Amino acid sequence: MKQPEYALIVAGGKGTRIKSTLPKQFIELNGKPILLHTLEAFYRYSSTLKIVLVLPEDDFVIWKSICAKFNFSKPIILQKGGETRFQSVKNGLALMEGEGLVAIHDGVRPLVSEDIIGASFRLAAIHSCAVAAVRLKESIRITDQDNTKAVDRSKFRLIQTPQTFDLQLIKKAYEGKEDSSLTDDASVAEKAGHIISLFEGSYENIKITTPEDLTVASALMDSRLKK
């Protein structure tokens, strides 16, 4: 029997690196706010998916105006974020009860595909954890203040979202103490003693952080429309 599936979308960006006064999740990309593209990707995967959207409370008014402007009426569960991503995810998880699987995803990764989302749920059902990742394309070096050293890039992966988990496993992991080393949900689960299972993500599944990312995302969206 298929387990209940949730998505937890975290969107607390400020737009500083993208040089915008508007939080980056609300910046329009190809005629629509980035966050709406992200949410619609999850609804394309499943129209019955239960989605919790975590936003800074100050952004609730912006979100409601976007819903009105773009006629977006999907049954999103809205939750206020915390001071950090850790706290925001914990707040979102608090609204989910019982058994199931939850895909935790960055609100500013609008190019995630239905295939990637589906794979994350299927693999998490087997392994209790499934984290999207891609291989490095370029050479890398490790550096300190004085020296640099080449390292084998085949041993490293770039980590993306969704990061999908057994719901009770990740809720319990988030009961642990927060610290600066916990940069994503996989690191929280790992600190709680769980093995992290990776699966192949996509180079198109970019996180929009800088102005250049907007240009790349726009081009990728245009190319999808031509296929």
Put the structure in a nutshell.
By secondary structure, the protein is of the alpha/beta class. It contains 7 helices and 11 strands.
Report on the architecture of this protein.
The chain has 227 residues and is α/β, with parallel strands linked by helices. It has one domain: Spore Coat Polysaccharide Biosynthesis Protein SpsA, Chain A (Alpha-Beta Complex). Helix content is 33%, strand content 24%. Helix 1 packs across helix 4. The longest helix is centred in the last third of the chain and has 16 residues. The radius of gyration is 18 Å and the shape is globular. The model has no long low-confidence stretch (mean pLDDT 94).
Layout of secondary structure:
Blueprint: E1 5-10, E2 28-29, E3 32-33, H1 34-45, E4 50-55, H2 60-69, E5 77-80, H3 85-93, E6 101-106, H4 114-127, E7 129-135, E8 140-143, E9 148-151, E10 157-166, H5 167-173, H6 185-191, E11 198-200, H7 211-226
Parallel strand pairs: 1-4, 1-6, 4-5, 7-11
Antiparallel strand pairs: 2-3, 6-10, 7-10, 8-9
Helix pairs in contact: 1-4
Helix content: 25-40%
Mean pLDDT: 94
Give the termini distance in whole angstroms.
35 Å
Per CATH, the superfamily is Spore Coat Polysaccharide Biosynthesis Protein SpsA, Chain A
**Order of the strands making up the biggest sheet:** 5-4-1-6-10-7-11
Characterize the overall form: globular
Largest β-sheet summary: 7 strands, mixed
Number of helices: 7
Q: Note the run of SSEs as H and E.
A: EEEHEHEHEHEEEEHHEH
Percent of residues in beta strands?
A: 15-25%
Which fold does the CATH topology refer to? Spore Coat Polysaccharide Biosynthesis Protein SpsA, Chain A
* Class from secondary-structure proportions: alpha/beta
What would CATH call the class? Answer: Alpha Beta
Instruction: Tell me the domain tally.
Output: 1
CATH architecture: Alpha-Beta Complex
